[in-house]
Write a structure and sequence with these properties.
Blueprint: E1 14-17, E2 23-26, E3 32-34, H1 50-72, E4 79-89, E5 96-106, H2 111-124, H3 126-131, E6 136-141
Parallel strand pairs: 5-6
Antiparallel strand pairs: 1-2, 2-3, 4-5
Helix pairs in contact: 1-2
InterPro entries: KH_dom-like_a/b (IPR015946), OHR (IPR019953), OsmC/Ohr_fam (IPR003718), OsmC/Ohrsf (IPR036102)
Pfam families: OsmC
Protein name: Ohr subfamily peroxiredoxin
Amino acid sequence: MDNHSDTLHITAAAITIDGPGGESYMEDGSFSTLVSLPREMGGSGEGFSPAKFLALSCSSSFSFTMAAIMEETELAGRTRISCKVSMVPDGAVGDSKFAIAMDVAVKGLELETVQTLADNAFERCPLSKAVKGNVELKVRVVPYEEKEPPIFEADSNWAI
């Protein structure tokens, strides 16, 4: 990795030992979990899969970007970014890739305003930039609803 004199942040190292069936953790001790393949892909389904890590990364990165844009534009409202990551076939037999769908909602704002915010966040979000051109990423604006987790309906018509 290149050293950048203008680097804004460097995170603690993330380490994974023994792949599926192993453990992933942050070197600083702030987080650890078992890792496995999903049951649908022949794994135990225990712990986290790369898709789950990606979903957390996407929703938090997009949420942070939305918050920054809202602060810049002096808008306020509680945000809810729901992210669903799917594994889909990719060419050669056995190869797969990620596809990402996000629902974006902001309490107290009109859907048109939320759409503008989401469009801006899509362009500015570091994770959106990282996956651009490599991962199908769809962002949909939805009305804000108070919901208890889980909030992304897995059986919804919102397909990737």
